[in-house]
Design brief:
single chain; 1474 residues; alpha/beta; 8-stranded parallel beta sheet; 51 helices; 45% helix; globular
């Protein structure tokens, strides 16, 4: 096929697409015309939808016509488009006049309409010889750069030989009373055999050993230290006195809660815990008790001077216990992992809502703190160093930097593990990074193992572990919590629960190491270990071509990038460069960082993959400006999601910026012009920070201008970087200097050719490097004429990228042109100029430039009307404010607030109205996991700016009121508290560093005109009381995430009561609950004057505080007090010893149905099994119960708007619920249309009778089998045993089936929604978590609706015992029919093993494909199974706890081993298993 044929085919395809779109548009216009005959009405939803569609199409039509000149459309289609556009514009004008501008927002459905791709599809990247090298199997994780690591040199464990001055300095200032510590741990070479699995310190390489261990089995880490300490304290005294011990008896502050110091004061406790994890849990590796053993964290206990000792003693204890246990079985060596926690401060997050550039710790301070910790851990005998529970990657980078420095000073090879923490279901760290971005940010340190721990249980971690396992090049681990905290702050998962939860990791081959975090104990680890032994460990991924992998909040693989024009090219945005933007320069010189952020955000929206940041100017303090800009930018999610390029002429400026980047940035630039020594020093430092680097083609002699000079300097630099500095070649970006052409000087004419030619050669001889350039330099001679410049750039880039492999460029993405968008005349002139093909190329381009300048002037004079596209700026002021808040846009907030103020009767109405509306939306989004902390802080800054503007008006209003009241305005106190609605103290309690929820509450309260004093995290009780008095606050708020915080809150409540405080106390945080508040906190402080109230989330804080400080306080508090008293009574009543009947006595008091008076249901119309495969999703939609759907998304309405559909009227969540529901309907319709999900199931109806002993049900395949007594299956039932105060019977499901002699029957069904897994994978591949979760939520609704549908069909048709039933769907959901359908594993029959009986008897798997896992979960996940009882006296009930006598009987009846039976029934046993 010829090129022309190809173009013709492409045009035809475009014509066909546009014809369909135009036909749809025409139909909607006709529909609109018909609906408008009766005039415009804002109540006509159908009309509004149509108008929204037309309005959204208008800019698409304009864009289509503008691109038509490229030949993308044929003449007939172009003519039709033009005519339809004219009609559309007239229609919209008429509509706008009728509606007075009230045109609804555009609909999403037209996103893909009227778009012609005039650019090609993604253009393949130029290939070089090294690109075709096939991947090879990995033999070990990526190696660090040190010789010791690369050569697998064993650690001699002779730490006394380490004499670096900095290390000696830390040892010298140690607080340890023994100044002659043993710090050597080498073992005799002949202690154990030389072959794996034996290990001898000093003889064997631990790196090699870990590789062998992790590739041969899933290795076992330990569990929670804090949980074990808590458990110990429940059985033994462990109060302030024990924490202090004799040595710290007179310590100046309280130290209870400082678990790390127990390694010094109660070493037997810590050693005992270590030993339990090794002997009971079977751990291969145990972590030291040093989570908070840094000077930063220990400052809260005034124990900074004891950091070395804390780490040394914790490691030494672990070393001794490991060696003791290893000696018992040398084939299973045990290793000490030096645990390095995150500290209680963050480098990436501002502690101040008002000041995004504020920080309470620096990178260098973190490095120093971590370095001292490392010295103590290694001197104490640690084998491995683990940077763990990382919620801010910048802290992790500081720890890894410190470790790297230590290893460089000592020459040792110590394996490093890194463990991050994703704080919620958004799959991001607290500082906003995805798991992939987290790994990309720390992979430069070459950790042996990377994984996740804490925050979530295994079930909630699953999708994130899968994603991490797919991208990590080293080993992978997980140590999850034992589920999520319960109402009392504990963890409910049993060892078996936790093992089952972790099994998905093992089955999928995602892990090499597993352990446990919060709530886990040695039995939990034992169960996990036993479960893991059935599976193989994760295989290391093959080693392929190295690629540059950058990160901001999200990761970016540069080698896989295509820009918005389809080119394999990384757009580096140039507008945050003082040299590249006059506007940016003016803003920076004025210190207007807020507006400068808007420029950065716009660049990302316009297509920049990376943001270049350059603040070089002689009149600007570059060091301070770079740091402040970066610190603010990393808090702006729309900006920080992309990596940064830190650009400065002074190395100290980029280094300073680098220390505030949690992601992996590019540094621009270094070069040989500073000399080889300094060049290598700078490169080494950048490698340690993990930054990629731009290397300019400069050397000691100057700038490279010719092709030969560019190649020579770049190759010299490459060899030095790769071979001497060991800099990753894929992280090198050469800039061979894009120099200006078209200057009229002959020596400049070949600069374009030289760059393009040199690029290809450099790429060929310097494998894996990137080539970049400042593209604007090329056309500098034609500045002021954008069209000319961008045309030259388009032609230059196309050739440089496609013919030579250029990868990167600093560009203005918005102004970039595709090659086919360049006018033919300009394209030809650009080619001539760039490739220096003619002597008059410059003159020709100058003539075209003059023409374009003239055209620009003519257009200015002609006064052409610019077509204004509708945007959010066209909304009314109040709506603009809401939009600005939700999207964090600060540019127009002052003018919009002013307009809104003029529309309101008083300034406060602006705050209480549109501003709070906007913040409520932000709160809902955050609570739903759709926004994270940096976004909320950004919205808060917009709010603060708005409130700050309004305050003078509010003060003036108050002064005017003083005049009216006859008071002197001069007496007005600007610090008068009456300027605020109230004053609130906020604190995260001692021992807890988590404050995200507290921050949100503080933001929302502050934005509602409450003065908030946020005194930070790790706040001691003394500090809280002191500050409450100092600030004379009206309300005190306490926050906490971890379980120990609950006890600390109790202590604070007690001290508040003793101190005579009168302020209400608010309680919040993930680990808190209303029950804990009512039972544990309220009794210590609650009075009518100062209640204690649990606040569920930020959105409710304003209501609670305003009620407490308002006129309705008494009624509000009285209601709360009554509720809490009832909860407390219920709780303690439930704790009283319950009495149980013996199994025999319970059988005697069973339910007795008189089957003569109330006979069994008639014989079913269709006996046997029936496969149900013809039911469509559309058929079950009327049966959907939407209430659980909103619970899944954590959206709950308040009375009277609880439940669907009343939730839509709820003031707080109604809007979000409706949006969510609408999104669900959109996906539902798509699923129905494309049948991407489908339903299948099976129903079985069989003869059945109660067994002779009355406890089970015998089921028969046929009536003939019943006659002969040939039971096909026996379904075993459990009976209630907990004593009842009434005469109610002790129920078993067997009671509902008639005994022998009656023709009774029982039903079974299993149903599933298929296809969801495929959709989930599709959305995962698209990184669309929202659609993924939506698909799963809908699949659950579909299958539940299918179950409801099928049960009805059984009642009225298949069985037919209720053929006259005429209940509507609402009554069905209220269970107003006869009979029940209890599910195996649920309260009426809490034994999941009965599902196996059903599956075997009905052949469920064979006939439907619905499977059972080893833990008897149904697969697909969206599945439901049930037994069907027809008797009208059958009822739902809960078996509750059962005694051992019944379990023994049950196991015997099931022919099951008693121990196995007890394991399955563990949650309902009223006794402890042996």
């Amino acid at each position: 096929m010829s090129k022309d044929d190809t173009n013709a085919t492409s045009t035809t395809e475009a014509d066909n697409k546009i014809q369909k779109d135009l036909a749809k548009l025409k139909g909607e216009m006709e529909k609109c015309s018909a609906l408008m005959k009766d005039g415009y009405s804002s109540e006509n939803k159908e009309l509004l939808d149509v108008i929204g569609f037309l309005e959204a199409c208008a800019p698409r039509m304009k864009e289509l016509l503008e691109k038509a000149s490229t030949g993308a459309l044929s003449a007939p289609i172009l003519e039709e488009t033009t005519q339809l556009n004219d009609q559309l514009q007239k229609s919209l004008t008429q509509i706008a006049e009728a509606a007075k501008g009230a045109v609804p927002a555009p609909k999403k459905e037209i996103d893909d309409m009227l778009v012609v791709d005039t650019k090609s599809k993604l253009i393949p990247r130029m290939q070089f010889s090294y690109d075709s090298v096939p991947p090879k199997p990995a033999t070990e994780p990526p190696l660090p750069v040190s010789d010791a690591a690369r050569n697998h040199v064993p650690n001699p464990y002779l730490n006394s030989n380490i004499t670096h001055p900095k290390i000696l300095e830390y040892r010298a200032k140690s607080s340890h009373p023994n100044k002659s510590l043993n710090i050597n741990y080498s073992q005799g070479a002949s202690l154990y055999p030389e072959s794996f699995p034996h290990f001898v310190r000093g003889r064997d390489s631990l790196r090699e050993y870990i590789t062998s261990l992790f590739t041969s089995q899933i290795s076992i880490y330990d569990g929670a230290m804090g949980t074990m300490i808590q458990n110990y304290s429940k059985r033994n005294k462990l109060e302030e006195e024990e924490y202090r011990g004799d040595r710290f008896k007179e310590w100046s502050c309280n130290v209870k809660g400082n678990n790390d110091m127990l390694s010094i004061t109660q070493p037997h406790v810590i050693a005992g815990i270590y030993k339990q994890y090794l002997e009971v849990g079977g751990s291969n590796l145990i972590g030291t008790n040093t989570f908070s053993s840094t000077t930063i964290a220990m400052a809260d206990y005034e124990m900074e001077a004891y950091v070395y000792e804390l780490n040394y003693e914790s490691a030494r204890l672990a070393r001794e216990v490991c060696d003791e246990v290893t000696a018992k079985d040398p084939t299973k060596p045990r290793f000490v992992v030096g645990a390095i926690g995150p500290t209680n401060r963050t480098g990436s997050i501002s502690p101040s809502v008002e000041d995004p550039a504020a920080r309470n710790v620096t990178f260098d301070e973190l490095v120093e703190a971590y370095f001292e910790q490392v010295v103590g851990l290694v001197d104490g005998g640690s084998d491995i160093l683990m940077v763990e529970t990382i919620f801010d990657t910048l802290n992790a980078k500081a720890a890894l930097f410190a470790i790297g420095e230590y290893l460089e000073m000592t020459g040792l090879d110590i394996p490093v593990f890194v463990s991050g923490t994703l704080v919620d279901q958004s799959g991001r760290t607290l500082s906003g990074q995805t798991g992939e971005a987290f790994y990309a940010s720390i992979r430069h340190a070459k950790p042996m193992c990377v994984g996740l721990n804490c925050a979530l249980g295994a079930e909630h971690m699953t999708p994130f572990v899968e994603r991490l396992a797919k991208c990590v090049e080293c080993f992978v681990h997980v140590y999850s919590n034992a589920g999520l905290p319960n109402a009392m702050g504990g963890y409910d998962e049993t060892p078996d629960d936790m093992a089952n939860g972790n099994e998905v990791f093992f089955k999928n081959g995602w892990l090499n190491m597993v352990g446990g975090c919060c709530g886990s104990t040695p039995p939990h680890i034992k169960a996990i270990r036993e479960m893991s032994e059935k599976y193989k460990p994760r295989k290391l991924p093959d080693v392929g071509r190295p690629k540059m992998w950058l990160s901001g909040l999200e990761d970016l693989v540069v080698d896989d990038v295509h820009n918005h024009l389809g080119l394999p090219f990384l757009n580096v945005g140039e507008r945050c460069n003082i040299a590249g933007s006059l506007k940016f320069k003016r803003l920076m010189m004025a210190g207007n960082y807020s507006s400068a952020m808007d420029i950065a955000k716009q660049q990302v929206e316009d297509g920049a993959h990376v943001i270049d940041i350059n603040v070089d100017d002689g009149m600007l303090d570059g060091l301070a400006a770079m740091q402040k800009f970066v610190k603010i930018a990393v808090t702006e999610p729309e900006i920080a999601k992309v990596p940064f390029m830190l650009d400065a002429s002074k190395f100290e400026i980029v280094e300073a910026g680098l220390k505030w980047c949690q992601g992996k940035p590019i540094v621009n630039s270094i070069s040989l012009k500073v000399g080889e020594k300094l060049f290598k020093e700078q490169a080494t430092l950048l490698r340690k920070h993990g930054a990629a680097v731009v290397v300019m083609a400069f050397d000691e002699e100057g700038q490279a201008a010719t092709e030969e000079e560019k190649v020579r300097i770049c190759k010299r630099s490459y060899d030095m970087l790769v071979n001497e500095v060991r800099f990753p070649p894929e992280d090198i970006v050469f800039d061979p200097n894009v120099l200006t052409i078209g200057t009229g000087m002959e020596e400049h004419s070949n600069y374009g050719v030289d760059f393009i030619n040199a690029t290809k050669i450099i790429k060929e001889i310097c494998p894996y490097v990137k080539i970049s350039g400042g593209i604007s330099n090329l056309s500098f001679g034609f500045r002021g004429v954008t069209k000319i410049r961008e045309s030259i750039h388009a032609v230059f880039l196309r050739h440089a990228i496609m013919e030579s492999g250029m990868d990167v460029g600093i560009v203005n993405a918005k102004e970039m042109l595709a090659l086919d968008e360049v006018e033919p005349e300009l394209r030809k002139a650009s080619e001539e100029l760039i490739f220096n093909r003619s002597a008059d190329a410059t003159e020709v381009m100058l003539e075209l430039t003059q023409k374009e300048r003239a055209a620009i002037e003519a257009r200015k004079k002609g006064g052409q009307v610019k077509i204004k596209e509708k945007s959010w700026r066209d909304f009314e002021p109040k709506k603009r404010l809401e939009h600005a808040l939700v999207n964090g846009i600060s540019e127009f907030v002052v003018e919009d607030v002013e307009e809104a103020r003029k529309e309101c009767s008083k300034p406060l109405e602006v705050i209480e109205g549109p501003l709070m509306d906007g913040m409520n939306v932000v709160g809902d989004l955050f609570g739903a996991g759709k926004m994270f902390l940096p976004q909320v802080i950004k919205s808060a800054r917009v709010m603060k700016k708005a409130v700050a503007y309004l305050l003078p008006f509010m003060e003036a209003e108050k002064k005017q009121k003083m005049l009216e009241d006859g008071l002197d305005p001069a007496d007005f106190d600007e610090n008068d508290d009456s300027n605020y609605a109230g004053k609130v103290l906020m604190a995260t309690v001692k021992g807890d560093v988590h404050d995200i929820g507290k921050n949100i509450v503080a933001v929302v309260l502050g934005c509602n005109n409450y003065k908030v004093y946020d005194i930070g995290v790790m706040c001691s009780c003394e500090k809280i009381l002191e500050k409450a008095k100092e600030y004379n606050v009206d309300v005190i708020g306490l926050s906490g995430l971890i379980t120990p915080s609950l006890d600390e809150m109790v202590d604070v409540a007690k001290q508040l009561s003793k101190g005579g405080f009168k302020q209400p106390l608010l309680i919040g945080g993930a680990t808190t609950s209303k029950m804990h508040t009512a039972v544990k906190l309220a009794p210590n402080y609650f009075t009518a004057e100062h209640p204690v109230i649990h606040v569920l989330d930020a959105s409710r804080s304003v209501t609670v505080v305003s009620s407490l400080l308002g006129v309705s306080k008494d009624d509000f508090v009285e209601d709360i007090q009554e509720e809490y008293e009832e909860m407390k009574e219920d709780y303690y009543a439930g704790l009283e010893d319950r009495h149980f009947l013996s199994h025999e006595e319970a059988k005697k008091r069973k339910m007795v149905i008189d089957f003569d008076k109330a006979p069994p249901a008639p014989v079913p119309n269709k006996l046997g099994a029936t496969v149900i495969d013809s039911v469509k999703i559309a058929d079950v939609i009327p049966y959907i119960d939407w209430n659980p759907f909103f619970q899944t998304w954590e959206l709950r309405g308040r009375y009277p708007n609880r439940g669907y559909p009343k939730i839509f009227n709820d003031k707080t969540v109604g809007g979000e619920a409706k949006k969510l529901f609408d999104d669900a309907q959109t996906m539902l319709k798509r699923i129905v249309k494309d049948e991407s999900m489908w339903l299948k199931g099976i129903a079985g109806l069989f003869p059945a009778n109660r067994s002779e002993d009355g406890e089970d049900v015998d089921v028969f395949a046929t009536e003939a089998d019943r006659e002969t007594g040939n039971a096909g299956a026996k379904f075993c039932m459990l009976r209630q045993q907990a004593e009842k105060e009434s005469d109610d019977p002790y129920l078993s499901q067997a009671d509902f089936i008639a005994p022998n002699g009656y023709k009774d029957h029982i039903g079974f069904f299993a149903v599933s929604c298929f296809g969801c897994e495929a959709l989930v994978k599709k959305y995962e591949a698209e990184n669309d978590d929202f659609s993924k979760i939506m698909a799963q939520a809908l699949a659950d609704r579909f299958v539940e609706a299918f179950a409801e549908y099928l049960h009805r069909e059984i009642r009225i048709d298949l069985w037919g015992y209720a053929s006259g039933e005429s209940l509507d769907e609402a009554d069905l959901l209220k269970i107003k029919y006869d009979g029940i359908r209890p599910a195996p594993g649920y309260p009426s029959q809490p034994d999941h093993t009965e599902k196996s009986s059903m599956w075997d008897f009905v052949k469920v798997k064979e006939q439907t494909g619905i499977e059972l896992s080893e833990s008897l979960s149904m697969m697909p996940a969206a599945s439901v199974s049930a037994l069907v009882f027809a008797h009208p006296q059958s009822e739902y009930f809960a078996v509750g706890q059962v005694g051992k006598d019944q379990v023994e009987s049950y196991a015997k009846r099931k022919n099951m081993d008693l121990e196995i039976c007890e394991r399955w029934l563990s949650p309902i046993l009223n006794y402890e298993r042996d």
